[in-house]
Amino acid sequence: MPPEAELVARAQQGDRQAFRKLVEANEDGITATVTAMLGPTGEVDDVVQDVFIKFYETLDRFRGEAAVSTYLKRIAINRSLDALRRRKRSRARFWSRDDETTTLPEPTDEATSDDFEDRERERMVHEAIQALPPKHRAVVVLRLIEGYSTEETAQMLDIAYGTVLSRLSRAHEKLKTLLTPYVQDYEG
């Protein structure tokens, strides 16, 4: 495959094959980011598609100062936050605020295999991440799940370095509170 910069240049000149290669090279990563932000819902495919539409629309302004994947992750986070706001507005029409509290299901003692326990732990962690406020979730996804540095996370979210650290700390405390009963259950 040609280098990324060459593909971008060709795509900017209207080469659809070059754009398609950029999409194919980044689709799995963007899908993972959006899924981490929204959970495994039907919205994921729509948001991923929206990310690549936005990329296509702004391709002429892409200067290559960051990797395409970094640029796309930023779009993905922003589009995911938009979807979460729409979800919240939609929910508000049907439920009262009291019904919006997030609770994790009770842990079960019926795990019969290591695979089941691993899947159950993964599900609990995923649900705990979904319980975080969107701004904190975005930091957790980029910093802890995607592995970006604190500085890269700050740049992608267009927030201060210290804000990333603060949100990460708050997210850590909330995750600790949500997951402690399950960790104790698995250790006990």
Your description of this structure?
The structure is a single chain. By secondary structure, this protein is mainly alpha-helical. The chain folds into 2 domains: 1-96, Orthogonal Bundle (Rna Polymerase Sigma Factor, Chain: A); 102-188, Orthogonal Bundle (Arc Repressor Mutant, subunit A). It contains 8 helices and no strands. The chain has helices spanning 4-12, 16-38, 43-58, 68-94, 114-130, 134-145, 150-157, 161-187. It is globular.
Give, in order, the helices and strands: HHHHHHHH
CATH architecture of the largest domain: Orthogonal Bundle
Largest sheet: none
Mean pLDDT: 85
Strand content: under 5%
Helix content bin: over 70%
Q: How is the CATH topology of the largest domain named?
A: Rna Polymerase Sigma Factor, Chain: A
**Count of DSSP-assigned helices:** 8
Number of domains: 2
The stretches of 5 or more residues where confidence is low (pLDDT under 50) are 96-104, 108-112
Task: Give Rg in angstroms.
Answer: 19 Å
- CATH homologous superfamily label of the largest domain: RNA polymerase sigma factor, region 2, helix turn helix motif
- Total E-strand runs: 0
Task: Give the helix/strand class.
Answer: mainly alpha
Oligomer: single chain
Q: Return the CATH class of the largest domain.
A: Mainly Alpha
* Inertia-based shape: globular
